[in-house]
Write a structure and sequence with these properties.
Oligomer: heterodimer
Shape of chain B: elongated
Structural class of chain A: mainly alpha
Shape of chain A: globular
Radius of gyration of chain A: 24 Å
Low-confidence stretches of chain B: none
Mean pLDDT of chain A: 76
Mean pLDDT of chain B: 81
Radius of gyration of chain B: 22 Å
Order of helices and strands of chain B: HHHHHHHHHHHH
Number of helices of chain A: 14
Helix content of chain B: over 70%
Number of helices of chain B: 12
């Protein structure tokens, strides 16, 4: 168990380190280096001495642009591991971390609730699809689900905005809450938050419940054909016992893993959906940083999103042996090698959140 | 050919897959020959903007007075090129890495898989957006490379798992006894056995690439120049398509084009799945 844990911790740290390295070199080594760009921009504006320019660049990127590359790199990595991502270019004087911290709750509210809703809907529909494959409901639903899972989420967002917000003015299309409510724990504010989140949530759920249903259907179908289910039935166990203890629990295994993995991708927010609804979450911040070439904010968002994914993958690794003890037994190594790892079971794990 | 006969039989039984195949064929033909029939200019043509559907303009015109249908036709080629090239890269890297890693085994396998795991963990879409915003390319091949930067990892893992189980099979032992080179072992012995899985992954990789690529254009992260469906949606949104019903067709036509292609690809890939996976046919 300890060895297993140590390996996972090491892997998580290495991944974060690689992502930090990638983002350092991406900003600095690409053609049209944004740091030089910023320097040139400041020089053009005039009225500032070269020293001031350097100071400003250093404040924004957290490193001296003039030093040797390896020194810049070490400073950058050190800063990031201390939680210092530099200042935002667009909002001078505001730290990247504080901007991200203010965006995070909105993403968690929006995507978290949508994730749970689509997960539950997916479980129910998936079970019905697997248990009664010949019913009319299943036939219609299979069509609907496979159609929806092929439709890009940003298109659903556009259609919803068009039909419900612009034509009929049923829902607001920007912001997370209305300006005339007082942020805090009071009823009008919470109501306003839910009201503003309704359309983006709907867009998210419509896009992702199909993938959950198909995953659950696959999972239940596999379990239905398993020998231990047949054995349980042969032993004369009641239908309810078989469904709940034998089928339900085993079919839930991969689903729980997928849910936990999705929680990580959740912090990436639904980039498209947040952008279209101008919902001030992490994904929205990422895109507005990209559009205004605010590289320090952009890289901060990207690194934080990755850390969230890494951490939740790590949590999955922690809970997985509890849910499925076979993982830790050496005898099961072979079956684990031939069977796809939990993350790979659902290629759409990220698609559900994109 | 026994294989084609089998395929045709399955397609005939599975009507959605058959329709999907035909739709894909039409898109491919449009992408290849569309430029002979349709023309789009960047200059505004006076008095032609926002026309409704008519015989001359079956889907109306856009804010510049261009025929929407022509733009859809012209826009097919860049979207398809990027989708297919990106899928080819994903498949090539994924299969080569997966087969090699699974076949070689040992320390090298462990190392390659750890690297693959890192790429699996990094959230793909944010990474693609970040890279695309820094590189800012109009070259379809560079765009395709950006789109495939993390997508190969999942395939590599799955292919490796299959290679691992194939490695101990008799025909590999037979090949080893004959002292065949490693390239032969991987290319001629292992590859045909993972072929079916690869074919399906190819179609799904195309859908993934088209999804991300159009998304980049819609968000305006990739440079808006030329004509493709994503740029059409982007321009329509920026011209206020959401606030006037006049440009509804201009906004929804490219969306319909994307959805139709994506759905066709998914349904067609299911027929392939059935063809290669006889167990599915019984169910």
């Amino acid at each position: 168990m300890l060895g297993y844990l140590a390996r996972r911790v090491l892997m998580a740290l290495v991944t974060i380190y690689v992502v930090v390295t990638i983002s350092f070199y991406m900003v600095r080594l690409m053609p049209g280096n944004p740091m030089q760009y910023l320097e040139a921009q400041l020089q053009q504006q005039g009225g500032v001495s070269p020293d001031q320019i350097r100071q400003q660049v250093e404040a924004i990127y957290g490193v001296m642009p003039s030093g040797p590359l390896w020194k810049q790199y070490l400073t950058y990595v050190g800063n990031v591991f201390r939680g210092d991502f530099g200042d935002s270019m667009l909002n001078p004087g505001q730290g990247v971390l504080s901007i991200i911290a203010s965006a995070l709750p909105w993403t968690v509210i929006l995507v978290g609730i949508s994730l749970i809703i689509s997960f539950v809907i997916g479980l129910v529909i998936g079970t019905i699809l697997a248990a009664y494959p010949d019913s009319t409901f299943s036939k219609v639903m299979t069509g609907v689900v496979s159609f929806l899972s092929a439709v890009p989420n940003y298109l659903i967002a556009i259609v919803l905005i068009y039909l419900l917000a612009d034509l009929n003015h049923l829902f607001p299309i920007t912001g997370a809450y209305s300006n005339n409510t007082e942020p805090g724990f009071n009823l009008p504010f919470i109501g306003s938050v839910l009201y503003h989140a309704a359309l983006p949530m709907a867009a998210y759920v419509i896009v992702s419940f199909g993938a959950w249903s198909l995953a659950m259907k696959g999972s239940v179908t596999t379990v239905l054909g398993a020998d231990y289910v047949r054995a349980a039935e042969a032993r004369g166990l009641g239908g309810r016992r078989v469904t709940q203890t034998y089928i339900g629990r085993n079919a839930m295994l991969p689903m729980i893993t997928n849910l936990a993995v999705s929680v990580g991708y959740m912090f990436g927010g639904s980039v498209f959906i947040e952008t279209y609804f101008s919902y001030p979450g992490l994904g929205f911040r990422l895109i507005s940083a990209v559009n205004s070439r605010d590289y320090s904010l952009m890289m901060g968002c990207f690194i934080l999103i990755t850390i969230a994914v890494v951490v939740s993958n790590f949590v999955v690794d922690l809970i997985y042996p509890v849910v499925d003890p076979r993982i830790l037994k050496p005898a099961s190594r072979k079956s684990r090698l031939t069977a796809p790892p939990p993350q790979a079971e659902l290629p759409g794990a990220e698609a559900m959140n994109a | 050919m026994e294989f084609l006969k089998d395929f045709w039989r399955i397609l005939r039984e599975d009507k959605p897959a058959l329709v999907g195949g035909v739709v894909i064929l039409v898109y491919v033909l449009v992408a290849i020959f569309g430029h002979f029939f349709a023309h789009v200019s960047d200059l505004p043509s006076g008095g032609q903007a926002y026309l409704g559907p008519s015989l001359d303009h079956p889907l109306g015109t856009d804010f510049l007075g261009n025929d929407t249908l022509s733009e859809i036709v012209i826009g097919t080629r860049p979207v398809m090129i990027v989708g297919v090239v990106s899928a080819v890269i994903v498949i090539f890297v994924g299969v080569v890495v997966g087969l090699f890693s699974g076949y070689v085994g040992g320390f090298l396998d462990g190392l390659i898989m750890r690297i693959t795991d890192i790429f699996l963990t990094i959230p793909g879409l944010p990474l693609i957006i970040v890279i695309a915003s820094i590189i800012h390319t109009t070259n379809p091949f560079v765009l395709a490379i950006i789109l495939s930067v993390t997508a190969w990892a999942g395939l590599a893992r799955a292919v490796r798992a299959q290679a691992l189980s194939l490695r101990t099979s008799d025909f590999i032992d037979a090949a080893k006894v004959q002292n065949l080179p490693l390239t032969n072992l991987i290319g001629r012995q292992l590859l045909p056995n993972v072929g079916p899985y690869v074919a399906i992954s190819f179609l799904l990789a195309v859908t993934g690439a088209i999804y991300a690529q159009v998304g980049l254009f819609v968000l305006g992260v990739a440079p808006v120049s030329g004509t493709n469906w994503g740029i059409m949606i982007n321009l329509a949104m920026n011209q206020g398509a959401l606030y006037t019903s006049r440009s509804m067709l201009y906004l929804f036509a490219p969306m319909a084009a994307i959805v139709l292609l994506q759905v066709a690809l998914v349904y067609f890939s299911r027929a392939l799945d059935k063809l290669f996976n006889p167990r599915l046919r019984v169910q």
